[in-house]
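Postdoc handover notes: sequence design on the structure in folder B. Input tokens:
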């Protein structure tokens, strides 16, 4: 197969890429800044995200992925083009791009990803289920018999999968993620304290003092926002006990939805998962005491994977280097011209 292989984890919050020789070729954010009047790109990734809330109306910030699928095709294509070009350098042959998707995406959503990857410069493209990549990236061996459960807590979605011998035995997606915690914190300060904070401040609070279970010792920190009374800058103290009820509510909603999905799994697979425990991954599991909370509410042993936020891209790296995994799961790299034919068929659906 001519051309290098590039693996892509294009999530609601992060954009990561790997090649066969570089497991961490790109580690950026899924954000773009552009001129509102002309649509000209100004910045991508972390630099674009840092401009959020710090620019005038002449610059707009967009997040290209929502709920695991492309919501802004134009800038998804542009950011993919920029980073694929960066990874490829001056190579003659077009790359073979492997992209992870949520388990339950529709044919139309697959079409959008295939089209974006093709327009961004792929010679061939291959779509794989992200939950399988996450499982492999968590260290679950493809030779293991019986079901191994993985829960990937992402920014806007949470994926649940049971993997057996390197294939997906059962999977589902919950439209609830760590972003809901950020929103709950923002809404609390607006409603209860008449203080306006942005998403960066909400994430800072979450990462430093929020927890999935009530802490034994209270933590506090000073943050800045804008007064809802006079719209002037304000510094204020926030404590872990103050925000816990709002974090707790979101975690309860998430676990309730996960529990409902687990009830649909066959008794044999669920029994296997209970015997081996649940592996947690995704950036959302960095929340303090999340494994203990899942274990308590789900009644099954839970552990956080090593380097959980990069489990999916690490799994993509494993898949792209192993043709047997690709074949066993029915994946295939499709030529650019064949992709165009498939897109035409999708249009007729």
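Designed sequence:
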């Amino acid at each position: 197969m001519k051309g290098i292989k590039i693996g892509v984890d294009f999530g609601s919050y992060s954009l990561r890429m790997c090649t066969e020789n570089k497991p961490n070729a790109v580690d950026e954010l899924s954000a773009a800044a552009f001129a509102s009047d002309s649509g000209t790109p100004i910045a991508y990734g972390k630099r674009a995200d840092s401009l959020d809330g710090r620019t005038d109306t002449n610059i707009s910030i967009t997040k290209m992925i929502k709920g695991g699928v492309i919501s802004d095709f134009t800038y998804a294509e542009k950011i993919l083009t920029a980073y694929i070009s960066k990874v490829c350098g001056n190579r003659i042959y077009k790359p073979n791009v492997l992209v992870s998707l949520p388990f339950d995406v529709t044919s139309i959503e697959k079409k959008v990803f295939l089209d974006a990857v093709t327009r961004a410069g792929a010679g061939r493209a291959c779509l794989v289920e992200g939950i399988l990549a996450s499982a492999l990236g968590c260290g679950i061996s493809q030779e293991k018999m019986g079901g191994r459960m993985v829960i990937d807590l992402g920014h806007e979605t949470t994926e649940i999968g049971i993997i057996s011998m390197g294939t997906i035995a059962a999977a589902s997606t919950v439209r609830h993620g760590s972003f809901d915690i950020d929103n709950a914190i923002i809404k609390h300060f607006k409603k209860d304290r008449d203080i306006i904070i942005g998403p960066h401040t909400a994430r800072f609070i979450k990462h430093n003092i929020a927890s999935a279970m009530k802490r034994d010792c209270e933590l506090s920190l000073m943050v800045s926002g804008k007064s809802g009374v006079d719209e002037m800058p304000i510094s204020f103290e926030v404590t872990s006990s103050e925000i816990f009820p709002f974090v707790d509510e979101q975690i309860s909603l998430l676990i309730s939805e996960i529990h409902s999905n687990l009830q649909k799994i066959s008794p044999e697979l669920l029994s296997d998962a209970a015997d081996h425990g649940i592996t947690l991954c995704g950036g959302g599991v960095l929340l303090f005491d999340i494994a203990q909370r899942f274990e308590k509410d789900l009644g099954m042993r839970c552990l956080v994977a090593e380097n959980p936020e990069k489990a999916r891209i690490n799994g993509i790296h494993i898949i792209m280097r192993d043709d047997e995994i690709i074949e066993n799961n029915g994946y295939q790299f499709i030529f650019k011209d064949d992709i165009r034919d498939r897109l035409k068929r999708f249009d007729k659906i």
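Context for whoever picks this up: The first helix runs from residue 45 to 50. Don't rerun without checking with the PI first.
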